[in-house]
Write a structure and sequence with these properties.
This protein is an alpha/beta fold. It has twelve helices and 19 strands. The protein has three domains: 125 residues, Methylthiotransferase, N-terminal domain (Rossmann fold); 253 residues, Alpha-Beta Horseshoe (pyruvate-formate lyase- activating enzyme), CATH 3.80.30; 54 residues, OB fold (Dihydrolipoamide Acetyltransferase, E2P) (Beta Barrel), CATH 2.40.50. Bound molecules: 5'-deoxyadenosine (5AD) and iron/sulfur cluster.
């Protein structure tokens, strides 16, 4: 009998990639993914705890699952990811309908824990080990699946893929829960990464995004090759792989952004001119409280250098408003930074207290209302700037990698990762490249016509 699983993913791209791995592991023991949670014999929640809200969503879905489990006691519920890591013991105690809880390094054990329950050897499963000696298993054990496959029922070939190059984070930004949930930095061996990317290319993948919490410190904490290789070195090796059309990466801490890496933007053709460089605040005082280890001035200097190497580079950032101790003046400095850099886009958040972090122990917390007002002001101005940035594309020709053609409407992304729409016929396939003359810019996308 076919078994059905439903996987719900919260949070970052690391979690998206982990969910793919979970899907592949489950396929190996006979599960097919379904789109409706109510049709599933197995529900996996791959969770995020970066802000309180993300965590609340998990508890709310677990609440909804309780009646499902009462109706069908054979149904299994697995909680994975950052909430699992952080709350593991509590979850198992307080949520009797949860069968398995696995931490961020233990996703690979889901099949084994499930089968132990099915065979009656155990009632529930709990695996929370998080160690700096952990070795990310070689990719062959969960070889990337590129559809069409029974796992991913889409009939379109997948042309964009994530490749994890490192896990964990050693930075200890005061507000951040990630070092606790993802552990110490561990880099994957260079050869493993190159082989994985090569395999993806051979299956038709055109664009690869290298993933890590702080890719700039790739290779710093453990041996990744016979000769030391840093992130810029890794980028160069991946970029040299025959057949790769586009290369991106995320995420970086500005403090570790080396000249050598910035130079890659000038020298590597396949490296897309799009850089997510989270600044978090425009106030040096707040950056210090956040333990970010760079200043506004050094950030701006790096922005200038990046733009000198690659004038068309689109910069995106993350901002936290209302960190404990943030005054009106500090916030005004964040608004000033926004005017100075004119980011193409940003993700902005209200500060949220996370268990075990240093910031959660600071006394001068900011009122929720003040945080909301600051966030709304920031977002309004960023939206205006984002639109103005998009308008700069009008009258230019951009190269678009086609992602979908449907009812005469084609869409895809340009190198700066902007969504581009254009009239197209079905002879165009995902993964084809077209030149589009941009005629119109909206808040979220560009529109134009294919240039012959
Ligand atoms: N509160 C609000 N935002 C946070 N982020 C990380 N921790 C917190 C927190 N405690 C934001 C940062 C980070 C992004 C992934 O989430 O901006 O870059
Ligand atoms: Fe969320 Fe951070 Fe964990 Fe990603 S690493 S799932 S963003 S808490």
């Amino acid at each position: 009998m076919t078994k059905h699983c439903f996987i719900k993913t919260y949070g970052c791209q690391m979690n998206d990639r982990d969910s793919e791995i979970i899907e592949q592991l489950l396929a190996q023991i006979g599960y097919i993914t379904v789109a409706d949670m109510n049709d599933a014999d197995l529900v996996v929640l791959n969770t995020c705890s970066i802000r309180a809200k993300a965590e609340q969503k998990v508890y709310s879905l677990l609440g909804q699952l309780r009646p499902n489990k009462e109706r069908n006691p054979k149904m299994r519920i697995v909680v994975a990811g950052c909430v699992a890591q952080q709350e593991g013991n509590k979850l198992i105690r307080k949520m009797p309908h949860v069968d398995i809880v696995v931490g961020t390094q233990q996703v690979y054990r889901i099949p084994e824990l499930l089968e132990a329950i099915e065979r009656g050897e155990s009632k529930r499963g709990l695996a929370l080990d998080l160690s700096s000696d952990f070795e990310i298993p070689p990719y062959q054990q969960f070889a990337p699946v590129v559809s069409p496959t029974p796992v991913n029922k889409s009939t379109e070939p997948q042309i964009k893929k994530f490749v994890t190059i490192m896990q964990g984070c050693n930075n200890y930004c005061s507000y951040c829960v990630v070092p606790a949930t993802r552990g110490r930095e561990i880099s994957r061996p260079v050869r493993d990464i190159l082989e994985e990317v090569q395999l993806l290319i051979s299956k038709g993948v055109k664009e690869v995004t290298l993933l890590g919490q702080n890719v700039n410190s790739y290779g710093k904490t453990n041996q990744v090759a016979e000769e030391p290789v840093d992130f810029a070195g890794l980028l160069r090796q991946v970029a040299a792989l025959e057949g790769l059309k586009r290369l991106r990466f995320t995420t970086s801490n500005p403090k570790d952004l080396s000249e050598e890496l910035m130079r890659c933007f000038a020298e590597l053709d396949v490296l897309c001119p799009h850089f997510h460089l989270p600044v978090q605040s425009g106030s040096n005082r707040v950056l210090k409280l956040m333990n970010r280890k760079y200043t506004v001035e050094s950030y701006l200097e790096k922005v200038d250098t990046l733009r000198s190497y690659r004038p068309d580079i689109a910069l995106a950032t993350d901002i936290i408003v209302g960190h404990p101790g943030e005054t009106d003046e500090d916030f005004e400095e964040t608004m000033e930074l926004l005017e100075k850099v004119r980011f193409h886009g940003s993700f902005s958040f209200k500060y949220s207290d996370r268990p075990g972090t240093r910031s959660s122990e600071f006394s001068d917390k900011i009122d929720e209302k003040v945080k909301s007002t600051r966030l709304a002001r920031f977002q309004k101005r960023q939206d205006e700037i984002g639109l103005e940035r998009n308008q700069e594309f009008v009258g230019t020709v951009v190269e678009v990698m086609v992602e979908k053609v449907e009812n005469g409407d084609g869409r895809g992304r340009n190198p700066t990762n902007h969504l581009v729409h254009f009239p197209a016929n079905d002879t165009l396939r995902p993964g084809d490249f077209v030149s589009v003359a941009v005629e119109h810019a909206g808040k979220h996308s560009l529109r134009g016509i294919i240039k012959k």
